[in-house]
Amino acid sequence: MSLTVSLKSRWSNGEVTLGAWCMMPGSMGAEVLGRQGFDWVLIDMQHGCMDYTVALDMIRALDQTNAVPIVRVPWNDPGIIGRVLDAGALGILIPMIQTADDARRAVEACLYPPIGRRSFGPVRVGLRDGPGYVATANDKVAVIPMIETAEALACVDEIASIPGVDALFVGPFDLSIALGLPPGDNDGEPAFDAAIKTITTAAKKAGIATAVLSNTEVAPLRISQGFQMVSVTTDIAALSAASAADLKAVQSTK
After folding, report:
1. pTM greater than 0.90
2. Which is it for strands 91-94 and 142-147: parallel, antiparallel or unpaired?
3. What is the pLDDT of residues 118-148, one digit of tens each?
4. Per-residue confidence at 5, pLDDT binned at 50, 70, 90?
5. Distance, CA of 213 to CA of 183 (rounded, Å)
6. Which of 100, 115, 134, 246 is buried deepest, with most CB atoms within 10 A?
7. Which positions are annotated as active-site residues?
8. Is 245 helix (H, G, I), strand (E, B) or coil?
9. Residue 92 host element (H or E)
10. How far does the chain reach from its first CA to its final CA, in angstroms?
């Protein structure tokens, strides 16, 4: 993959980027999604079923496509953040951010000095991008804290203003639970609608993007709300829908 324009640059230009979500382990599935035209593909190491070695292979598979490899790490931990960046991830989604200090630590783990504290050792990504990687890494790597708790919502303006934060990611399931709602998209519920407004307003004020886990039904609404990083499907949802439709089509001919 020859990445000339980062997601960060596209967001700053006002572009909407659409992506797919990998929950299943395996480089083949990641490559299939990467070749469909998505702007980015996310490898989910928090709730997905892949370990580091598999995630590495999935990043390498995505490097054969035009989709930007993003990784959701299991936790706000510098060790795993550094490893997936050294593997070639160009965006890090950090779950369960609670405070501005949490967001600051995420930035420090993702970026090289003087902005951050990332350790130098781009062994695998150096093979892909060459010796010039370190000079451009901070400009290419997107730092994306998730806003999905009541604590994060209460200090979202402070989180958004941390230098190095590139987007705020809405996790609708955990956010809904935190608001006393069932997990999922709860549009029309005043508390959920107000939370979405609070997050998008904070991001706009800080001059950064907003991002969200979504689907084909809800994505158009999210785009109209100003989200610039929007997932369209997951590998499990796509496989389930396509296989069920194929089975039903053939069953109807019996």
Report:
1. yes
2. parallel
3. 999 999 999 999 999 999 999 999 999 999 9
4. confident
5. 12
6. 100
7. 47
8. helix
9. strand 91-94
10. 46
